[in-house]
Design a protein that fits this description.
Length: 200
């Protein structure tokens, strides 16, 4: 059954089809954003699967555009869906918090208490004495799960609110010391399924 027979010709042309294009673009661009991230993170199984559905949805959207080339609303829907898809994809990726990162912490204060607290909580770190512009500093290097960043930043801020820290993504790490709480045992794929179940 054609859409025009359900909604009427004018409503279909000016509202239904543009909305379908808009949401299809949101979905396929979101999948594309996640696919690129999964490729960068080395998640080989999910990246091709997302790519399949991304292209399939894109073909459906572009097919509607080609059938209605004279309707300028479709072009706006296509562009608007692309923009919104980027935002949605980045939002989902931020919630997934996949992979590991290198955390560098530079503190001007004596960092013994901070180092002890982090190690007592099960985090592995390397402490180095260094020289900054205003004198001696302590540099801490940590390899941590990305979803641990909020917890670690709270610990750092409680001991040294003015500490400087930077974060760098890591694709592969051979060894490391990580906390033994529950999240450390959840695989990357289980994390993804868990986040998606929360968004339903």
């Amino acid at each position: 059954m054609e859409l025009s027979s359900l909604f009427g010709h004018d409503l279909t042309v000016w509202l239904v089809i543009p909305l379908l294009i808009f949401f299809a673009r949101i979905l396929d661009v979101s999948l594309g954003t996640l696919r690129v991230i999964f490729v960068a993170k080395g998640i080989r199984l999910l990246a091709p699967l997302l790519g399949f559905f991304e292209v399939l949805i894109w073909l459906l959207a572009i097919g509607q555009i080609m059938q209605n080339l004279t309707n300028w609303v479709n072009y706006l829907s296509y562009a608007g869906g692309f923009a919104m898809g980027n935002f949605v994809g980045m939002t989902i990726e931020a919630r997934l918090a996949l992979g590991k990162v290198i955390l560098r912490i530079i503190t001007h204060r004596e960092a013994d208490k901070l180092v002890k607290e982090l190690r007592d909580r099960g985090y592995g770190l390397t402490s180095v004495d260094a020289e900054g512009k205003n004198g001696p500093v302590k540099v801490l290097f940590m390899l941590v799960e990305r979803n641990e960043l909020t917890r670690i930043s709270e610990i750092v801020n409680s001991y040294n609110p003015r500490a400087f820290y930077s974060i760098e993504d890591v694709r592969f790490a051979r060894e490391g010391i990580f906390p033994t709480h529950k999240n450390a045992f959840i695989s990357r794929h289980h994390q993804i399924l868990k986040i998606f179940s929360k968004t339903k």
